Amino acid sequence: MAKQKKPYPESHLHPRFWPTWAMIAAMRIGAFLPWRLKLWIGKGLGELVYRTLKRRRHITETNLRLCFPELDDAQREALVKRTFHANGIGVLETATGWCRDPEHMRHRVVFKGTEYMERAKAEGKGVLIIGIHFSTLDLGGALHSLFFDADVVYRKHNNPVFEKFMTRARNRIFGQAIDRHDLRGVVKRIKAGNAVWYSPDQDFGRDASVFAPFFGVDAATIKLTAKIAKMTGAPVMPLMFHRNDDDYTYTLEYLPALEGYPSGDDVADATRVNAFIEQAIRRHPEQYLWLHRRFKTRPAGESSLY
Question: Residues near 59 by Cβ (< 8 Å), separated by ≥ 6?
């Protein structure tokens, strides 16, 4: 029988939460550090995780072996390291997005394809934004808020202190932070004419998904994206965002709304979404969250890839 975790104490000042408060304080301090120092600390943090968390390194190596078979061992290992470094920097980018006014970053942002979003908003049906789990996710959300308002769908954190900190930060960046299980809330906000940022690129299990190709590998892909689009009639807007090669500026880019989506074919719709996500990842593959088990759920009869 699996060992059950102890419930969290009611008081947020309980000693069990002291490490969480220390982490929050570190994030607040980190958000205001000079940019080059942030990069240096972030890469160091990524290197530390790379060297110490062997399980996460194994997951990342497996994902990249499956998704980039054209790379030789040396190239793949270099990409693994860059991935850990980028995700380490992502911790500081998240701190910056959550704890600072995004206005101080406006001069670092290039936003392409804004006309596509303006066109989608003009339809008056609300908008469903397809986001991606890049290391720049939360900073990308903060930078997006400089140009367009949006709500965000998110996963609640089990730790109530960190959950409160995270939700308060996201509510400052976005219009509302909506629990991922609150489908009614998502649909209501879209039907009210709002844009909702939703990231469908994780494995939510067999019951919620169909299998569709992702980098040529069958991946459990959530059906909810098409369901929300069908329930609301909202245009579905693919959004790309990444840190540029100069490690100083960022690019956000809207592509045209998906035409004929949803089609009524769950596999075809999931395949279209995965194709966009793959296109975005190939621009800066090291900035994607390869540390999670994207191929955890397998078709019947297949053994685990990890």
Answer: 290, 291, 292, 293, 306
